[in-house]
Amino acid sequence: GAGVSQTPSNKVTEKGKYVELRCDPISGHTALYWYRQSLGQGPEFLIYFQGTGAADDSGLPNDRFFAVRPEGSVSTLKIQRTERGDSAVYLCASSLSGGLDTGELFFGEGSRLTVL
Amino acid sequence: KNEVEQSPQNLTAQEGEFITINCSYSVGISALHWLQQHPGGGIVSLFMLSSGKKKHGRLIATINIQEKHSSLHITASHPRDSAVYICDLRSILMRFGAGTRLTVKP
Questions:
Q1: DSSP letter string, A64-98
Q2: Model pLDDT for residues B29-85, shown as the tens digit of each residue
Q3: In sequence order, which residues have a C-beta less than 8 Å from that of residue B41 and are 6 or more positions away?
Q4: How many other CB atoms sit within 10 Å of the CB of residue A19?
Q5: CA B50, CA A28: separation in Å to the nearest integer?
Q6: Minimal Cβ distance to B95: which of A45, A89, A103
Q7: What local confidence, expressed as pLDDT, does residue B42 receive?
Q8: What count of other Cβ atoms lies within 10 Å of the Cβ of residue A76?
Q9: Mind spelling out the 3-state secondary structure of A34-47?
Q10: Across the interface, do A93 and B31 touch by the CB < 8 Å criterion?
Q11: Which of A49, B3, B44, B100 could pair with B21 in a Cys bridge, judged by C-beta atoms 3.0 to 4.6 Å apart?
């Protein structure tokens, strides 16, 4: 597609449930980022993929969060045993290349997760 | 101490005013991005800076790597500039500022 696509756009779940959020980056972009943004706050870095591998997962808050990118394109962020504090907008971004001097970031519209 | 601090947190201006948003950071970086997030939530990248100054239309961004400081300026502000402006550090650890919420009144 022309831009970064995230699905679902909205997800409401109950505490304790498992959730998957999907990100389809711009074709050819090797770098993919996941962020979380709570209301009124700036984005919080979660994990960064360069190709299929997680180059930096230091932002994942705990072991309930996991992300994969098995073929170097689509990525899935997985949250186990969701908690109310996980409610946020989960943003995905991609760029043509990664690394310290990465180029322009292109963001998806985000997936709004609400845990009841 | 936060690694990235933006100021002001909130800014209200009248249409036509010159606006400055600041970003100070404490980590070594190779580049810094300024992002714009509109009320609907979409984020767009405005600038990537590694040194000096860049200009795009009414927007000007500067960075001083030695002083660990960057500024985003908007000349002749317009209500459509109302958004949250976020400073994004490109370093080994990726960090964002909390954002500056700008409201430009007609």
A1: TEEEE-TTSS-EEEEE-S--GGG-EEEEEEEESS-
A2: 878 889 999 877 788 889 888 889 999 999 999 999 889 999 999 999 999 999 999
A3: A89, A109, A110
A4: 18
A5: 24
A6: A45
A7: 83
A8: 14
A9: EEEECCCCCCEEEE
A10: no
A11: B100
Assign B20 a pLDDT band (cuts: 50, 70, 90).
Answer: very high
So what's the pLDDT on residue A71?
A: 93
Evaluate whether A80 touches A59 at the Cβ level (below 8 Å).
no
SS3 state of residue B90: strand
Q: Which residue carries 């170097």 as its tokens? A: A72
Query: In angstroms, what separates the C-alpha of A26 from chain B's closest C-alpha?
Result: 14
Among A70-74, B26-30, B45-49, the range of highest mean pLDDT: A70-74
Q: From the centroid of its chain, how far is CA A45? A: 9
The dihedral through the CA atoms of B55, B61, A6, B38 has a sign that is: negative
- pLDDT (0 to 100) of residue B15: 96
Q: Please, what is the average pLDDT of chain A?
A: 90
Nearest-CA distance A48 → chain B (Å): 9
Least confident of A10-14, A83-87, B41-45: B41-45
| CB < 8 Å to A104, chain B | 45, 48
Cα gap A45→A32, rounded to integer Å: 12
